[in-house]
């Protein structure tokens, strides 16, 4: 991308360029979203076979559906994070990124927002689909559900982008992503499942103030740490 | 030289404290009224668990120190903390169920301390695996430091989250109210704690020395291959 002034862009400028680049490539190839979406569908169908509607009704939707949806999301997100840095890796574009006179944290920020956007796109398909398959009324709880989901997606995209960047530098690293990501984001998933369950039960969000605060703290922690250390990933 | 003296001193102190702690546990400390001999594992399990979580703090210090200064010594500390921490964590996960089965009636519960320990084990194993996968030792050091810092910051949050999570359910097999320890029990626990801290320090010091030596061997080999 050429810039008329010849001056390197600032933090937000760089992040916006990286974000626009990732989304444009995704918009033209639709590779990652197709891969993650298809994978999510497969996982959801398998869960549907494991717990049929009878079991689901007996236990109550709020007991099973949050776990099913967030496990599906976690698995498909891993597929997405693995692909997030594939282009940089396969065409040795890391060297160009590392040479660019820009803040490396901004490169992380761009990738993070791009991953978050992709996750939200996935969720927009996944939640209604899960509602249909498992007989849940989504319309009445759409707003609090969207809020809860977005809050957890932000943090998940943050830590996923950092770990995706790390494993993209390692040989045979892809296998490691799930091993690193899932234990680290345990608190995030516990909170997501708990809050989604409360929303499905029709409880007000203020009941889960502690969880939401914990997640907001995790979001900030994951993103701040990633901004600080992303530099070290790009060396060598 | 004080540093050369410190290492054998540490080894001698560890070797001397271990049998004293064992005697104190098995000969001096009174047998617990309800649980009987099984309770003796408490004197091993509790120090191991405390030091495992101390090791996470050491890992954080080593990882942040390396990312900040890029001095190899900090990375050696973080290698040692991760490896010895994983060893202690494994022992915690082995000694815990041995006690839990007779005391609680189950090998395992998903209580906060247990769950956090198993997640910590996974994190430490993941860090060591990531380091092993790295293309160069420097890359391994950087990546392990990043992961170590993230994992160490994560562990207290995992504990809090699992604690809340389980708080929603009644704890069926709770440890109950801790009885105040009988006189012989307290001193046995303290002695055992001292023995395991000394062992930890010895293992960490040995591992750091090993890392330092292998760095020097690698440097010598590189120099030799350049001369040829």
Q: Could you give a quick summary of the protein structure above?
A:
The complex is a heterodimer of chains A (236) and B (228). Chain A has eleven helices and no strands. Chain A has 236 residues and is mostly helical.
Describe this structure as you would to a colleague:
The complex is a heterodimer of chains A (236) and B (228). The two termini of chain A are 24 Å apart. Chain A has 11 helices and no strands. By secondary structure, chain A is an all-alpha fold. Chain B is an all-alpha fold and 228 residues long. In chain B, helix 1 packs antiparallel against helix 6 (183-227), helix 2 runs antiparallel to helix 3 and helix 3 packs antiparallel against helix 4. The two termini of chain B are 36 Å apart. Chain A binds chain B through residues 159, 162, 166-167, 169-173, 176, 179-180, 183-184, 186-187, 190-191, 194, 210-211, 214, 217-218, 221-222, 225, 229, 232-233, 235-236, and chain B through 67, 119, 122-123, 125-126, 129-130, 133-136, 138-139, 142-143, 145-147, 149-151, 153-154, 157-158, 160-162, 164-165, 168.
Average per-residue pLDDT of chain A, rounded, comes to: 87
Number of strands of chain B: 0
Structural class of chain B: mainly alpha
Order of helices and strands of chain A: HHHHHHHHHHH
Number of distinct helices of chain A = 11
Chain-wise SSE layout:
The complex is a heterodimer of chains A (236) and B (228).
Chain A (H helix, E strand, L loop, with lengths): L10 H19 L1 H20 L2 H7 L1 H24 L1 H5 L2 H7 L4 H30 L8 H28 L4 H11 L1 H15 L8 H26 L2
Chain B lengths: L1 H27 L13 H28 L2 H33 L7 H22 L3 H31 L15 H45 L1
Helix pairs in contact in B: 1-6, 2-3, 2-5, 2-6, 3-4, 3-5, 3-6, 4-5
Any key phrases for this structure?
A: 236 residues, mainly alpha, B: mainly alpha, 6 helices
């Amino acid at each position: 991308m050429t810039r008329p002034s010849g001056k390197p862009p600032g933090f937000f400028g760089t992040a916006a360029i990286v974000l626009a680049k990732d989304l444009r490539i995704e918009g033209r190839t639709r590779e990652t979203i197709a891969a993650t979406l298809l994978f999510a569908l497969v996982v959801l169908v398998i869960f549907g076979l494991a717990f049929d509607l009878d079991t689901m009704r007996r236990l109550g939707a709020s007991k099973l559906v949050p776990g099913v949806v967030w496990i599906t999301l976690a698995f498909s997100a891993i597929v997405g994070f693995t692909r997030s840095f594939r282009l940089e890796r396969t065409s040795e574009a890391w060297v160009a990124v590392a040479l660019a006179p820009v803040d490396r944290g901004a490169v992380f920020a761009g990738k993070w927002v791009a991953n978050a956007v992709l996750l939200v796109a996935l969720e927009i398909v996944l939640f209604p689909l899960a509602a249909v398959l498992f007989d849940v009324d989504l319309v009445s709880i759409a707003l609090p559900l969207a809020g809860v989901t977005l809050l957890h997606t932000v943090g998940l995209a943050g830590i996923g982008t950092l770990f995706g960047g790390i494993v993209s530098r390692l040989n045979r690293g892809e296998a490691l992503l799930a091993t690193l990501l899932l234990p680290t984001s345990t608190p995030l998933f516990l909170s997501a499942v708990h809050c989604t369950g409360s929303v499905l039960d029709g409880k007000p969000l203020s009941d889960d103030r502690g969880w939401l605060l914990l997640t907001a703290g995790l979001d900030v922690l994951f993103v701040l740490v990633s901004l600080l250390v992303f530099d070290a990933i790009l060396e060598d | 030289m004080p540093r050369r003296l410190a290492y054998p001193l540490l080894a001698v102190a560890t070797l001397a404290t271990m049998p004293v702690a064992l005697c104190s546990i098995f000969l001096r400390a009174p047998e617990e009224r309800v649980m009987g001999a099984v309770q003796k594992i408490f004197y091993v399990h509790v120090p191991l668990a405390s030091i495992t979580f101390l090791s996470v703090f050491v890992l954080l210090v080593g990882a942040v120190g390396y990312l900040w200064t890029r001095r190899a010594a900090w990375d050696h500390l973080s290698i040692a903390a991760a490896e010895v921490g994983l060893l202690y964590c494994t022992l915690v996960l082995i000694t815990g169920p041995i006690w839990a089965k007779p005391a609680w009636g189950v090998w395992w519960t998903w209580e906060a301390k247990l769950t956090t320990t198993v997640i910590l084990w996974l994190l430490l194993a993941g860090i060591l695996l990531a380091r092993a996968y790295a293309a160069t030792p420097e890359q391994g050091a950087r990546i392990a430091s990043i992961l170590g810092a993230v994992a160490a910051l994560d562990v207290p949050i995992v504990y809090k989250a699992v604690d809340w999570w389980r708080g929603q359910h009644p704890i069926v097999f709770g440890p109950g109210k801790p009885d105040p320890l009988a006189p012989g029990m307290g001193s046995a626990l303290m002695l055992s704690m001292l023995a395991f801290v000394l062992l930890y320090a010895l293992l960490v010091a040995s591992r750091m020395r090993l890392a330092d030596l292998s760095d020097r061997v690698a440097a010598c080999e590189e120099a030799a291959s350049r001369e040829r």
